[in-house]
Amino acid sequence: MTDARQLPPTEEERMLEHIRQHSHGEPPASLDALIMATARREAPAPRPSLWQRWFDLCRQPRWQVAFAGLFGVTLLLGVLQRTPEPAPRQVLAPAPMAKAAAPQLARRQAESAPAGAAPAESARAESSLEESNRFELAATPHAPGALSAPAPAAPVAGLPLTRDTEAFAAEPYESLGHLASFPGKEQVERDTPESILDDALRDVLHLRQTGQDKVADQYISALKQRFPHEDIDARLRALQQP
Amino acid sequence: MTHHQKEFSTTMPAVNRSGPASSDETLLARYRAGDSAAFEVLYQRHRQGLYRFLLSLCDKAELADEVYQDTWLSLIRTSSAPQGRASFRTWLYQIARNRLIDHWRKHGMRNPLHDSYDEQLHDLADDASGPEQHLSLSRERRRIDAALQDLPADQREVFLLRAHGELELPQIASLTDTPLETVKSRFRYALKKLRRLLAEEVLT
Predict the structure, then answer these.
(1) A232-240 and A213-226 are packed helices; what angle lies between their axes, rounded to 10 degrees?
(2) A19 closest CB neighbour out of B31, B72, B144
């Protein structure tokens, strides 16, 4: 195989080379400068990387507003999802029931206290009664006050139990240990499950006396689920006896 | 190398950075991607050949300057690129040629590149003007210029594209939209005439 470059130049190649060697003419320096300056000035901007474009996008005010708005909406949705729906009713509604149960609780505490200290203890119990009951009713669904959710619903009797009441009814009562960290725990510790049940049954009796039988029945159903080992009917009958 | 060539080369440090191996098409793509140094390499490669082609074709420095500038600015500002199998070199010279023809049309000048004539007749008519009339020229450069200007425009165009553009004959046929055989014929006659005009100097 013969390399073409090793062949002597043809007459055509010699002519072309001769013409190239003796040709003249250069573009003026001003023209070179003009063209190069134009080329540099109008060169397309290098395309930034993906991260650089994202960063630049985030620096634009309108996108900042958009991102902030999106974040705000997400935050709002998150807060709304976490807010319990019946919270206002749960806090405010049991108050009348607590007040209704106050004399009973004070009477019970007075009976259990020593005779000498009875007046002072009774007064202290009276003064702390409302606070402790409010605590029991509002702070935990395990407290007996929470069972009295139907009480404020008396004007609207017949409404179904709230979600919290249903949850309370579905979970069997085991201990009061989970209340240990709450304020007013001394009062709670004094209330045994039996006394809590009795208080609840007295509330049931009170509901029946005021003609709210349907709510009282729902209350008893919830107590039966809550205290599956207790004979609710027998206790209720015992409480009805003078 | 002239003083201006040396000066231009020293002002282009990017030439060494880009390396000689990059093809024209690669350099053009890099420029379009924002690498202005690639354009400097491309420009240095073709500035002299293109300018000499235009200068020899129109024989007017002012017109050559104008078309030369228009050609490069058009290349800078357009987003198009050589299509198909066309090389950058073919594309560049085609732009320059079209610009020159546009200029001739704009100024109402007859386009000598589109003249049709009898090749054989022209070859015979050339016998009347022998190389003797050029012997009085003192410099070889002027003799070559005169010989080139003595060629018919379409022969001169083919020869200049071959000499300064370093294009192959099929590329020239594609660029000028002329049958390959015609291009070969024009080149052959141009070569023959130039040989006659410059016989003594070239063959010695």
Answers:
(1) 130
(2) B144
